[in-house]
TrEMBL record:
This is Phosphodiesterase. The gene is LOC115162933. The keyword Secreted does not apply. Keywords: cGMP, Hydrolase, Metal-binding. Belongs to the cyclic nucleotide phosphodiesterase family. PDE9 subfamily. Its cofactor is a divalent metal cation. Residues 133-454 form the PDEase domain. Pathway: Purine metabolism; 3',5'-cyclic GMP degradation; GMP from 3',5'-cyclic GMP: step 1/1. Its EC number is 3.1.4.-. SUPFAM superfamilies: HD-domain/PDEase-like. AMP binds at H209, N210, F211, R212, H213, D250, D359, Q410. Specifically hydrolyzes the second messenger cGMP, which is a key regulator of many important physiological processes. Highly specific: compared to other members of the cyclic nucleotide phosphodiesterase family, has the highest affinity and selectivity for cGMP. Specifically regulates natriuretic-peptide-dependent cGMP signaling in heart, acting as a regulator of cardiac hypertrophy in myocytes and muscle. Does not regulate nitric oxide-dependent cGMP in heart. GO terms for molecular function: 3',5'-cyclic-GMP phosphodiesterase activity; metal ion binding. Zn(2+) 2 binds at D250.
Length: 487
């Protein structure tokens, strides 16, 4: 404002004549003093302006206005620079994401992205944060199992195809309670629920290696424990090791076997140096789940006991690698005739054979239960062989859809793998012959009959094709001869 405006404002607000002398007391000066001036003459405006300038200067000094202004300006400049940099970072991050997506798509389309093959649910470089822990009480319902179901669960004839995931979870929960494992390991029942749910969520939706297969193997283990009266011969800790290894034995299976992992040089094969890459991965995922407080069913076990349980579970899961089949079975054969249940080495070898039996026990079940599993396994094999052909990798004949049939796939496996192993176990537990070994022999005979039928049909088809060819040739020759005679 100009001095005239200020003069007018003061006189108007105070009803004072325009020619009055004002005294201004300034407390902003080092020593208060009186400044007097007369408003009436206009030649005093310069003096008033000077006074106002002095007052403004004193205000600035008192409140450090200039310093504050400079500081605010500097901070504003810094913030603007930071916003600009953050904006550039966001742009760069989005660009990087787009570039990665394009690269991944390109590698997938070429079929050569071997590092990305068989991706796992867990990234082991994430500082241990592998799962989203469930702190709530699991929502799957608690089923009350009928007495009929309870009895059926103990037998290899149990039909695993009639159960939903929630029902299978409840069955597994019942097994742990029934065997006394919850009491033995002082498990929190809610923790057991969370653990089982975590297990189920970390099996993939493969044709064969899925959660139903996990349940199938675990139910067969529960059946063998009851059928062979193992709690009378082994400890409850052994029962817990057998059941937990069965539940965890194929966690996060990618649907492509070890041979593929090694030949394709996948991340798993590189990580585990081509030594049982899948089985090592199953173990790692199992103990990642158990490392979560919400899912640790062994939380109340003493440290030394837990170390032994952990090592035993790892040993059993690694034993499911079929590349070690001959080695493990030969070791058991040398022990079975003089088997000693007080010998820790003997018991460990038996547990390894038991989990192997359960892992490949589908043909022990009734035909209507077992045969769908063959279809599932072949479908998974064919998926792998198709991929191997695309990527230029070796293809196993028993996986090639152009070479294998259901009978040829099963006969050799039953005759040379299943029956010899179960008959060796039968020496120690004769009671399994009728309910487990005999069904294997019947299954072998069933597939041999199917093979004979297939061979006969193939021969008939060959003869039919040959007859058509001969008839065609005879017909052509007749036509040619007829035309020659006409000429």
């Amino acid at each position: 404002c100009s001095p005239c405006d200020i003069k007018e404002l003061l006189c108007s607000s105070s009803n004072i004549p325009r020619s009055v002398t004002f005294l201004l007391l300034s407390s902003l000066l080092p020593l208060p003093h009186i400044i007097s001036f007369l408003f009436a003459p206009t030649d005093k405006e310069d003096m008033f302006q000077n006074v106002l300038s002095q007052v403004a200067e004193q205000f600035s000094r008192a409140f450090r206005i200039n310093e504050l202004k400079t500081e605010v300006t500097n901070r504003l400049a810094m913030l603007e620079k930071r916003v600009e940099l953050e904006g550039l970072k966001v742009v760069e991050i989005e660009k990087c994401k787009n570039d990665l997506k394009k690269l991944r798509d390109e590698m997938t389309s070429r079929g050569g992205g071997r590092v990305g093959n068989c991706p796992c649910k867990y990234n082991f470089s994430d500082d241990g944060k592998k799962l989203n822990p469930r702190r709530d009480v699991p929502s799957y319902p608690k089923y009350t199992l009928s007495q009929e179901t309870i009895e059926a669960l103990k037998k290899p004839t149990f039909d695993v195809w009639h159960w939903e995931h929630n029902e299978m979870l409840s069955c597994l929960e019942y097994m742990y309670h029934d065997l006394g494992l919850v009491k033995e390991f002082n498990m929190n029942p809610i923790t057991l629920k969370r653990w089982l749910l975590g297990i189920q969520e970390n099996y993939r939706s493969n044709p064969f290696h899925n959660f139903r297969h996990c349940f199938c193997v675990s139910q067969m283990m529960y059946g063998m424990i009851n059928l062979c009266n193992l709690p009378e011969k082994m400890t409850l800790t052994d029962m817990g090791i057998l059941m937990t290894a069965a539940v965890c034995h194929d966690l996060d299976h990618p649907g492509y076997n070890n041979t593929y992992q090694i030949n394709a040089r996948t991340e798993l094969a590189v990580r585990y140096n081509d030594i049982s890459p899948l089985e090592n991965h199953h173990c790692a995922v199992a103990f990642q789940i158990l490392s979560l407080p919400e899912c640790n069913i062994f939380a109340n076990v003493e440290l030394e006991a837990y170390k032994q349980i952990r090592q035993a579970i790892i040993t059993l899961i690694l034993a499911t690698d079929m590349a070690r089949h001959g080695e493990i079975l030969d070791s058991f054969k040398h022990k079975v005739d003089s088997f000693d249940f007080t010998n820790e080495e003997h018991v460990t070898c038996l547990k390894m054979v038991l989990i192997k039996c359960c892992d490949i026990s589908n043909e022990v079940r009734p035909t209507e239960v077992a045969e769908p599993w063959v279809d599932c396994l072949l479908e998974e094999y064919f998926m792998q062989s198709d991929r191997e052909k695309t990527e230029g990798l070796p293809v196993a004949p028993f996986m090639d859809r152009d070479k294998v049939t259901k009978p040829t796939a099963q006969i050799g496996f039953i005759k040379f793998v299943l029956i010899p192993m179960f008959e060796t176990v039968m020496k120690l537990f004769p009671q399994i012959e009728e309910i487990m070994v005999q069904p294997l022999r019947d299954s072998r005979d069933h597939y041999e009959e199917l093979k004979q039928i297939d061979d006969a049909m193939t021969e008939v088809g060959h003869l039919f094709s040959l007859n058509i060819t001969l008839s065609f040739r005879v017909g052509v020759n007749s036509i040619l001869n007829s035309r020659q005679l006409r000429k």
